[in-house]
């Protein structure tokens, strides 16, 4: 018996999408089509592939309003923010198109008489991308666009919370005239998704999701000689030094913690504040957080939507409760947020003062509109605490001393180090994680290295 996908909207609990999962024969047809298409796609000139992809991005952008509303209905982000994800997708894609010629150019060693030598990047073949629901376009853009520009074909499987995103992407590429089979989607059960991961047709796997699921992915791919990219959870820290401009800092940190209801892999969850500014930071942060409007995300006035599902909100509430039982102080009066209800995904934001590293808020991936705050006495203490984590996706410092920021950043175990901003990805820079936050690189010219394999040419003239 076939299983269906039913996407339940966190807005009101209604079913907004229903899809039939692909059968085994349909999955095999997708893989066969991708294999056939890749032989021709890789033979196109890079300029032609770039033009195809650029046309597809333009098609996607023309449907921005409709796609934005679909994303909001599927996962609950306020409609005032969702269109910006399509804009960010476009910016990242166009940047990758612009750097592709240089990133994929032959590398020529120093000349040697009588020999011609070069290293050339070639596509892997078929890339399988498993993408999450929280930023369904932005999380997949780097792997998707880089893979296609490099000459791979792509099979895309989005979370069952946002299945329409895969469909809209494939639709945009089709309408732009991209050859059939270059980009396809599948809606599959978890069991069939695992079978695709193990399929001999798959040459590279990109998994974007949480760290616990990544352990399963690694086990499935164990013993297979294919490439594997993992973009995982963060539990990201920020450090506010004594010289920080608190007015600007509080705005940035609160937004970094609350945007998308805290459902961001690089969102701020751990905040360390120099003791001399600790109380001032808390006072300002409370004022800023209480400005948020918790409500129906389809309303233009809403700035904080529901979490993706009730079970997610329940987990976040449990983390808050555990932290309170260990001495953390809740600074936000949840009664000021009328829609906060333990029986729904709607949850008031929260700041946990007096946090410490025995509490889950400072150790586990919370994925909700909550952050913990600790005072620190020195840069050295802040560095030690930031590194006291199983994760290392991004981290940040707020200071007016760029030299100190560089020195601190050199000692923090993280994939990305930011000064005076947080929860931010620069498309010109590599996106990577350390420890349990990932493996490999996406974005920048280094992303092309990951999604290709190198072939060396050594030709001797007699």
TrEMBL record:
<keyword id="KW-0560">Oxidoreductase</keyword>
<protein>
    <submittedName>
        <fullName>NAD-dependent aldehyde dehydrogenase</fullName>
    </submittedName>
</protein>
<dbReference type="InterPro" id="IPR015590">
    <property type="entry name" value="Aldehyde_DH_dom"/>
</dbReference>
<dbReference type="Pfam" id="PF00171">
    <property type="entry name" value="Aldedh"/>
</dbReference>
<dbReference type="GO" id="GO:0016620">
    <property type="term" value="F:oxidoreductase activity, acting on the aldehyde or oxo group of donors, NAD or NADP as acceptor"/>
</dbReference>
<dbReference type="InterPro" id="IPR016163">
    <property type="entry name" value="Ald_DH_C"/>
</dbReference>
<comment type="similarity">
    <text>Belongs to the aldehyde dehydrogenase family.</text>
</comment>
<dbReference type="InterPro" id="IPR016161">
    <property type="entry name" value="Ald_DH/histidinol_DH"/>
</dbReference>
<feature type="domain" description="Aldehyde dehydrogenase">
    <location>
        <begin position="4"/>
        <end position="456"/>
    </location>
</feature>
<dbReference type="InterPro" id="IPR016162">
    <property type="entry name" value="Ald_DH_N"/>
</dbReference>
């Amino acid at each position: 018996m076939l299983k269906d996908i039913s996407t339940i909207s966190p807005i009101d609990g209604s079913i907004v999408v229903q899809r039939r999962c692909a059968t085994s024969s349909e999955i095999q047809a997708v893989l066969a089509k991708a294999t056939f298409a890749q032989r021709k796609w890789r033979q196109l000139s890079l300029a032609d592939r770039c033009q195809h992809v650029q046309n597809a991005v333009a098609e996607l952008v023309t449907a921005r309003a409709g796609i934005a509303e679909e994303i909001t209905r599927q996962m609950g982000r306020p409609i005032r923010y969702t269109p910006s994800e399509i804009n960010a997708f476009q910016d990242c894609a166009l940047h990758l198109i612009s750097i592709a010629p240089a990133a994929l150019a032959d590398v020529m060693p120093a000349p040697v008489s009588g020999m011609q030598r070069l290293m050339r990047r070639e596509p892997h073949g078929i890339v399988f991308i498993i993408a999450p629901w929280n930023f369904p376009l932005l999380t997949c853009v780097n792997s998707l666009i880089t893979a296609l520009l490099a000459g791979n074909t792509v099979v895309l499987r989005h979370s069952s919370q946002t299945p329409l995103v895969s469909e809209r992407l494939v639709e945009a590429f089709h309408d732009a005239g991209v050859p059939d089979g270059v980009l396809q989607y599948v809606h599959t059960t978890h069991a069939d998704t695992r079978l695709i991961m193990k399929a001999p047709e798959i040459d590279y796997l990109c998994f974007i999701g949480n760290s616990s699921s990544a352990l399963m992915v690694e086990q499935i791919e164990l013993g297979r000689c294919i490439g594997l990219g993992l973009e995982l959870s963060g539990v990201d820290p920020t450090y506010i030094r004594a010289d920080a401009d608190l007015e600007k800092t509080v705005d940035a940190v609160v937004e970094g913690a609350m945007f998308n209801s805290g459902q961001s892999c690089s969102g701020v969850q751990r905040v360390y504040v120099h003791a001399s500014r600790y109380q001032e930071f808390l006072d300002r942060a409370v004022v800023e957080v209480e400005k948020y409007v918790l409500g129906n995300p389809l309303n233009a006035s809403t700035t904080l939507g529901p979490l993706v599902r009730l079970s997610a909100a329940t987990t976040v509430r449990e983390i808050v409760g555990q932290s309170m039982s260990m001495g953390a102080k809740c600074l936000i009066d949840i009664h000021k947020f009328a829609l906060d209800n333990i029986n729904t995904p709607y949850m008031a934001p929260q700041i946990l003062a007096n946090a410490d590293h025995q509490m889950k808020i400072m150790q586990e991936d919370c994925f909700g509109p909550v952050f913990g705050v600790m005072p620190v006495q020195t840069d050295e203490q802040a560095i030690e605490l930031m590194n006291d984590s199983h994760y290392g996706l991004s981290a940040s410092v707020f200071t007016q001393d760029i030299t100190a920021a560089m020195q601190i950043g050199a000692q923090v175990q993280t994939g990305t180090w930011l000064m005076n901003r947080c929860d931010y990805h620069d498309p010109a820079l590599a996106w990577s994680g350390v420890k349990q936050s990932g493996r490999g690189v996406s974005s920048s010219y280094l992303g092309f290295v990951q999604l290709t394999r190198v072939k060396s040419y050594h030709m001797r003239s007699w």
